[in-house]
Amino acid sequence: MGWNQARAIIWAQWRTVRNYIPRSSLGGLVFSGLLMALWYGAFAFLAGLAGLLLSRPDDLPFVKKVLPDALLVCFLYWQIIPILMASMGSSLEMKKLLVYPVPHGQLFTLEVLLRISTGMEMFLLLIGAGIGLLLNPLIPFWAPLPLVFFAVFNLLCSAGVRDLLVRLLARKRVREIVVFLFVLAAALPQVMILTGGHEKIRRFFSGESSPFLPWTAAASLAQGEFSWISVAALIGWTAAAYFFGRWQFERGLIFDAGEAGARTTSLGRRSSPLEWFYRLPNAVLPNPLSALVEKELRFLTRSARFRLVFLMGFSFGLLIWAPLAFGQASSPNSLMSQNYLSFVSVYALLLLSDALFWNCFGFDRSAAQVYFLVPFKLSTVLIGKNLAALFFVFLEISAITLVCALLRLPITLIKILEAAAVTLVVTLFLLSIGNLSSVYNPRSVNPVKSFRTSAGGRMQAVLMLTFPLALIPVLLAFLARYAFDTEWAFFAVLLFGAMLGGFVYSLSMDSAVKAAEQRKEQIIATLSKGAGPIES
Amino acid sequence: MDASPAISVQNLRKVYGAKAAVDGLDLQVPRGCFFGFLGPNGAGKTTTIRMLMGLAPPTSGTIELLGLPMPERALEVKQKIGLVPDESLLFDHLTGLEFTEFVGRMYGLSRPLARERARELLALFELDSEPRKLIGDYSKGMRKRAAMAAALIHRPELFLLDEPFEGVDAVGARLMKEILLEQVRRGATMFLTSHVLEVVERLCDRVAIIHDGKLVLSGTMSELRSGSETLEDVFVRVVGAERPTESLDWL
């Protein structure tokens, strides 16, 4: 039978993409295409630079110094960024493929190749580096080969981590703890480096002291320095990654998510302890708005993906920025330490943005049709969703402030007010952009999955282009405080920003409602369809 | 023909948390038989089919399909099974032809052969009039017909049919029934779940009824019915469908 089935899966995915393109909006496609071209173009440029550097014989001493660190960064990016972005890239739709007689080896190979989707940026850089090494006359012709092994090691490792995470995250109530531990582990290197002892870490991770590590072994071989120890280390790590990946994959194939999910919930579902929280909107809002907000609160708190990013906002967010603000290398008067709370709050918005702003119909996609049938305006629906988003944003800031207070970080009342004001202004702009984006570029999302499947690069590109827009008024406020040296200037500019945000919000609401009416058939069709053999 | 039963299930259990979705199921389906597997909603039919397909590992118990143990010989077993699944296993962004060809290739047919058979099957099921139409745009009945066409492409020995007639119009259903009966005549075995008891009564020669995960009745159609009882009467009697009616004044 050969590799017929693997080829059939790739062919079906190609047809799926080919069939989908003519039916999606041209504007959305062009926008996504431009974003991806910009993002990956930047990495292709960097790959070109790396190639140029590695091809010049004169720069070899410098290359020798930085290559192990560069490969370590490559490894960390490949393995950790997907966790930080809660985006695990494309993967096979096992539920749809397991009914067919496909040998597990073929499925595993495809799954490993799909891990390229989480590290495409690093893949480009390694290709650039490999070409550079090939062109360097002082480097032997076989030298780029270790980079291929290094890429394979990363793919296998990433596949194993993904399968392990998917299984752990299928267990309700356990998954938040698992993710919490994972993100803490992911942030650990930065915390350790910035809070001291980084020399020890540096000595461990790079240089001659640890030739057995995959990045140091690959770097040494890639420079043409042949040694059996490096060869054995690289092959050993790749083999270990293969066994880890394959072991996790096989366990994933016999894993029953329904069974794992039921194990912790079967103790009996009494009325939820959060019932009072869900009913809060009833106290202040009229129907149908209160019903809409209540539904959003219920839905989002039950969505594994939302719970994950919400938890990350006040745990991982705090941890990742704390060393920069209060670490050994920072000064108490630095911009970061002075505005720590605002930075963390804006970072939390970045994490929450996919669930609350950009794609507000995509999470509860089955309800999208109802929104066009109910006897009230679509603007009411959007306002309901936006109010729920606002509610969660302020809950997040409250959690961040509380954790800061518990950790005895230097946070004053004025800093809390500052963070709240900054977050409100940024949120207004994000809601404005998000309402339009939700209508023009709706995507179906599986709210049960904690990690996004879409390629990280596209999402990162969206965030990188839209976030600066929303941050402009806040940056101006910081600039005003710096120029006039008074808090009044800061709050005055923020107030102006809030008024501008309100105006932009009202304009975008009108446009979004009009567009939604015109595009309702497309929106419903996009949100109601499943995917091909590969989730992407 | 092999003397082993097409499906042999012993003491099969599937537990979700504290609830047993399937609880000690024993089932023998002879080869060449049209077997109806009935039960009210939530009785454990779909869980049983998922276990037979290898999609959900049993908590305990053994499964043998076509004389081969599952999951040890899963690849060989799957090669001989035709599946009409619930709709979630279809690929919405493929056309009917592309999907059927894909399934054929997944069962090891060469691409030209899979394409040729896919064309013929779609013509048979009257799905060829709009070749560019995606499965996502199909009606419910058309989706079931597409799934049935795909299930036939590799001439399987055992069919697992999960509500195959759901949403299919009378003409389409008649065609499907004729094809399935023809497959039984050539020696294939049918394992059918359906809520349309008239269809089961007309097609199946053996029936089993599952309730709360347990097998409550099993036998040939003539053994099950006594006197003038229809299958519906038997079903209602066995699963105890008497429910207290509450008055809803506002209604």
Note down, in words, how this protein is organized:
The complex is a heterodimer of chains A (536) and B (251). With 536 residues, chain A is mainly α. Chain A is built from 24 helices and 2 strands. In chain A, strands 1-2 form a two-stranded antiparallel sheet. In chain A, helix 8 (174-194) packs across helix 9 (198-205), helix 8 (174-194) packs parallel to helix 16 (304-314) and helix 10 (214-222) packs across helix 11 (228-253). The mean pLDDT of chain A is 79. Chain B is α/β, with parallel strands linked by helices and 251 residues long. Chain B has helices at 45-53, 74-79, 96-106, 111-124, 140-152, 170-185, 197-203, 221-224, 231-239, and strands at 7-16, 19-29, 34-38, 60-65, 68-70, 81-84, 158-162, 189-193, 206-211, 214-220. At the A-B interface, helix 1, helix 4 and helix 12 of A face strand 1, helix 2 and helix 3 of B.
- Strand sequence of the main sheet of chain A, in spatial order? 1-2
What sort of overall outline of chain A do the alpha carbons produce when their principal axes are compared?
A: globular
Number of helices of chain B: 9
Low-confidence stretches of chain B: none
How much of the residues of chain A is beta strand, in percent?
under 5%
Largest sheet of chain B: 6 strands, mixed
* Major interchain interface with per-chain residue totals: A-B, 40 and 40 residues
Distance between the termini of chain B: 59 Å
Number of helices of chain A: 24
Rg of Cα set of chain B: 19 Å
- The multimeric state of the shown protein is heterodimer
Number of strands of chain A: 2
Order of helices and strands of chain B: EEEHEEHEHHHEHEHEEHH
Distance between the termini of chain A: 27 Å
The global form of chain B is globular
Strand pairing plus helix content of chain A: what structural class?
mainly alpha
**Rg of chain A computed from alpha carbons, rounded to a whole number of angstroms:** 25 Å
Number of strands of chain B: 10
Relative strand content of chain B: 15-25%
- Going by helix content, strand content and strand pairing, the class of chain B is alpha/beta
**Biggest sheet character of chain A:** 2 strands, antiparallel
